[in-house]
Amino acid sequence: MLQVESLRKSYGERRILQDIRFSLNPGEIFGLAGENGAGKSTLLNILATLLTPDAGHVSLNGLDYADHQKQVRSHIGFVPQELAIWDELSVEENMRFFEKLSWKKQSRDVLRGLCQGMQLDKWKEKAGSLSGGQKRKLNLAISLIHEPDLLLLDEPTVGIDMRSKKEITAYLKELAASRKTMILYTSHDMDEIRELCSQVICIGKDPFYRDMLKAAGKPIQVF
Amino acid sequence: MKPLLQNRLLFLKKQAFSLLFWLVFPLLATCAVMQLAETAQEETKIPVGLAVEESSDLARTFTERLSSYALIDVRIMPAEQALRQLEQHQLDSVFVIPAGFEAEILSGSRHHLITGYRSDRSFAYAPVKEMVLSHVQKIAGRYKAAVTVEQLSEHLGQEQTWPAKEVIATADTIEKEQHLLSSHFSYAGNQPASKEGILLNPWGIWAIFALLSAFFLFDWVVKEKRMPAFSRLNFMKIKPKAYLLGNGLIYVGITLVFDACSVIMLSNLYETAANVRLALTLFLYRLAISLIAFLAALAMHKLPAYYGAGAFLALCFGLFGGAATIGASWFDYLNPVRPVMDKEPSIWLPAVLVGVVIIWFFRKESSDASS
Question: Which residue of B has its CA nearest to A92?
Fold first, then answer.
């Protein structure tokens, strides 16, 4: 379970996050919405242990972020918005590369199964020559090698075709249901959030997103 | 280390040509520069005509010694031909060893033993003449001393006689064995020409090219640390710093294998002794330049600036006390190339750099992203 309590973060005089509190249970998918600059990436980076908050507490499966950073990281899968893959290596080599550095050893079949699960079949093809959607799938598959309990995704479907979007969201739903993975998902695509997330955390001052989500009948938490 | 090695091999397979090029670059570039230097030196020798009008041992010894100097191209020919070529400015100067040269010296004469000729375009006549004179004086002095010893021996009626030729032969042997006397011809105080006629130190040249190639070999640090894929290492068992350091050690290992080949090849080519001392010197040098390149790559974010820094350092070490010059300045102490040229192992620079790397490795980052 991910527990976030009274989280605050400022950059100089500018207050970005104020009193953020929520909890995410195993198998739940939460959306994170808000205008650009609202603090979505800051919150995601704090939850990924890449930033420390000014105040508040975060814990994952009972492990406090402040005291057990190394252990916490071994349970997190982070999918950055940029494509964090090696273009000159093939899909297989990318998967093998990160598996060797990972917390958990996985067989070649498991690695291949991860890719096939999201319809990424070009196992021997160079990552640089894949389509945008296939690259996004590889970006996600690498983050799942060590079977994380918490998956943080920063706009994982930005700029890709509808079919790849559907395949990725279907895979994430299946992942949450079968492995009870906790998923926190940021996106500007409200259709995607409505379809995928059980609850949405809205941050920022712009009422556009919260009004849209309220109208769609989604449970939201506003900060 | 095994996972890092396996992962590095994935990249090295894709960059095999570039890797191989930079690994053999110091050796090939050194051979090329040395070859160029030797060719240039051959073409810039001072043409000196030598006319030998007697065939004594003394005249032959003198001719051989004069011919052995790297910067002089001694052309033996009859006096008339030599003087004609001097008039045509094909020769810089001409020296004639007249008939009776040995007899004159053995009789103790030290005047007008050799005749020298110059033209109005003889730019090197003065230093060549000085060198010839000093040799003639040396030989004449030795012969006169030997004759005196022989005469004294006879005069005093000693049982054991001291023939002049035997004294001279013994003196020559002692000189050769113990290097009692030596003279060199050089331009404006430059490094004296060695017996092989090479003005440049092959290890100094190799060291400079090795430094340059180290910067190109370690450019992966600059390239990889700015890639989004690198940020994933924050969530891996092997952390970014351990990844960089481990891969750095792999590169040092690979370069050491090629350094060993360079030692064998350069030692054979340039007749220098390949021993444990040289191996230790090169190992410490390799460690130092690898760490310099590694730390520079960590500090820099743009490849042109990084390559520029490498070229600048190589130029500095080359120009100030490097391969082409001999300097006694304080810079020699700091210059990592100097111990390689002198084949004297130097531990202080690698030790300091290892210390810096240890501090970097254990220092907590201001942002806890990569801690």
Answer: B10
Compute the distance between CA of residue A76 and CA of residue A60 in angstroms, rounded to an integer: 9
Q: Does A86 contact B229 at a Cβ distance shorter than 8 Å?
A: yes
Could you state, in chain order, the average pLDDT of each consecutive group of 10 residues for chain B (371 residues)?
Answer: 87 90 93 85 82 84 80 87 90 89 76 85 84 81 79 78 79 71 48 46 88 94 90 88 94 92 85 80 92 94 93 83 53 77 85 93 64 37
Nearest to B228 among A69, A74, A82 (CB): A82
Nearest-CA distance B231 → chain A (Å): 8
Output the pTM of the full model.
0.74
More confident residue, A90 or B55: A90
ipTM value? 0.85
Degrees to nearest 5, angle at CA A179 with A177 and A185: 65
> Do A118 and A133 form a contact (C-beta atoms < 8 A)?
no
Number of Cβ within a 10 Å radius of residue A181:
21
β-bridge pairing A76-79 and A150-154: parallel
| Chain B contact probe: residue of A72, A83, A101 with most B CBs at under 10 A | A101
Tell me which residue of B9, B157, B163, B136 sits closest to B61, measured CA to CA.
B136
R_g over Cα of chain A: 17
Q: Map out the domains of chain B as residue ranges.
A: 2-37+201-370, 45-178
Q: How is chain A split into domains, by residue range?
A: 2-222
* Six token digits for residue B28: 């090939």
Give domain A2-222's CATH superfamily.
P-loop containing nucleotide triphosphate hydrolases (3.40.50.300)
Query: What would the two tokens of residue B168 be?
Result: 């001279």
Q: How far apart are CA B20 and CA B254, in angstroms?
A: 10
What residues in chain B have their Cβ under 8 A from chain A's Cβ atoms? Answer: 3-4, 6-7, 10-11, 14, 227-238, 243, 367-369, 371
Question: Does the pLDDT of residue A47 top 70, yes or no?
Answer: yes
Q: What is the DSSP letter of B198?
A: -
- B10 and A89 in contact by Cβ < 8 A? yes
Nearest to A98 among B4, B14, B236 (CB): B236
At the second CATH level, the architecture of B45-178 is 3-Layer(aba) Sandwich (3.40)
